[in-house]
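Could you please consider the sequence and fold following this short note?
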Amino acid sequence: MKFAKLFLNEMIPEWIKLYLNYKLLKTQLSSSVYIMKKIKLMKSKYKTKKKQYKQEKQILLENEQVQSKIKSDLQGFCVTIKEDLIKIQSFIIWKYQDIQKKNTKVQEQIKLMKKQLEFIKLKQYMGDDSDYKKQMDNFKEKQYILKQTIYQFYIEILQYKSFVTSNHQGLIKILKKYKKWSIAQFRDKQFESLVLSEVMNEILILKKVPDKCSQLLNVTERLLLNNFYALNPKQGRYNLRKYQQKKTVKGKILFKFGLFIGFALVLLTFIILLRIEGYIDPDNDQNQHSIFQKMFPCFRGLALFIIYYWYLALDLWGWTHFRINYKIYLGFNHHFSTVVEVFKRVSYFSTMFLLSFVFYSLQAENIEPFQYRDSYTKYIPLVLWCLLLLYIFFPFTTILNGPGRVWLYKILAGAVYGHFIKYESRFTFCLDQFISMAIPLRDLDYTICYYKTIWQTGEIPDNQCFSSNRLTGALIAIIPFSMKTIHYLTRARDKGKFWHTDEMWNFFKTLLATWVAVLSFLANKHYLFRIIWIPFAAFCSLFQYWWDLKKDWLFFEEGSNVRFLRNDLGYNHPCIYYFIGISNFFLRLTWILTVSPNMYLYLNISNKEVFIFIIGFLEMTRRLINNFIKIEKEYITNLRSLKTTRDLVYPFVNQDKSNFQDIPDRLTLSVLNLNEQDKQDEDLIQLFRATTNLLEKSDLNKSDYLFQGFQPDMEILERAKKQEKFQESQIRKIKQENKNFKAQLI
């Protein structure tokens, strides 16, 4: 792998504008490289004619175009490397100071944690254990938060070390290229000596920073192991190594993915051919076993769930391809699935579903040699639904992507009640997914009603299970919208203001969507509700579309260099955003039918069940592009603030200082009459096994002379975050000049 590609792969996405612009520097050397290669060709051509070789070489180097071009590029090289040097140095100093501050806070938190536990245990020892259980539960919750904070701090140090190491290697590499390919007679010696001396000094400093980072990593690791994994340090080290390892794609996974996706495509082709031949007709009322009469909604819901899973996989591929850091917003740690792993899982589900669908279709249509067997064929959709739900709610976390399910449960808990305690925008993001899955959830409700009726009456239900005749069909859309309104009220509570804020407008637009869903359900009661629904639905769709563009995606940003968009774009070309913006307009119009389950009845459509499937498919497509841009917008927000990890939370507050001041710095286990066999005090034993003087011994707490005399230039950092477009235009300009330059020399 070439160094330029390796350098790009090692970049921290949120800091990408602060790295050495290796691509521009290499481009600025390209004219010199071209001339040097041309001279080498001359040398090999005139191997026995040295005099002629010298003449040709002199003519080439005395060419005015060659001289002006190379001098201009070499001078530009020196200017670029000097600007990048100041940018890198400023960021390294600023971030180093930031890490040192966080290190101090983490150490203070460890001390406060010990003090608080000692205080709780001392109160119990003295006989005051009235609220001991409540205090211990509160302490363990804070302890868990602090552990996650230390993990995030550890990741931040790793990223900082990676940033320094990459730039150090990049500077060395580009200087070697400069020395190898630049032509001595065209160099500006005085300017070059000043710039390159600064570069060499910076390289010497950068060489020392990783050692400091390694020391800090070791101290942080010991803090974590001694205070949280004292009884099982192996598990702690395993978790830390997971953060350092990069996931790789195994050939076995690729083979399985290719095998199952190929099989699924064959089955899908077979289903299409069956439909062309006139089978599995949704409007065939003659055949009592026709799959599209009663069983189609059961299969349709499964199909839409699988399509949603495919779209999630496509989103993940897009984020990975364009280096969009989705892990911060979604709250992933080292437990996350690679793109190929997700595609492999969805290909399993697709193959299983299509195989079952084909088998049922052949039996339901009585295609020889298959015959419909009522005893087991009718239960195929139920079995598939059970398998899908079992995968989602499988109780064990060691198999079947257990960490992924744990993450899902936490998100669901946060969306339902966790936001009252601490609101996170990803909880609302979770509810958005449920709104888009309204049709498959209604089909799940239909499936439950269908089989319940069969088991209770022994007869196939007529129309009582369709969502248009059931309150649950409307509630599936109303409940997520209602919960979203509560989320926005929670956000307003946290901010301390509601009126004339984004939370207020979010609240009212979600309330409007809720009323659209309610009116669609009431449309069965009286035709007047259908008339009222039309303006409500039209206004709701247009307002939601405008909100998507302006607020959720940050389009139409003031002062943007890209028309109708914003300055920072995570994806390569503005056309991607224009296409998504236009597509979203039409998809928002179909979205209103997703939240209005009964309105399709009044559209005089012959293939109503297939029409619902198409609406569901379009809504899944809208969710695909919405997720695609939403996560990219969050990434851009993090990029602008140089945020690479989740916010560090410091849960222990020294509010009751008077309660702690009489407690000695070190309490032994014997004072509290505890022993290591006491399983109830396992957490306490872990804490007291910690090296109590670890923090005092750490040389990282002493004054640091690494950056003595240097101060970060914050203006340089701000300018660096905005100069990416300029540097890209410079690269394009130099490449075009090189093209013309080569054409003239030929």
Remarks:
- Confidence is low (pLDDT under 50) at residues 657-711.
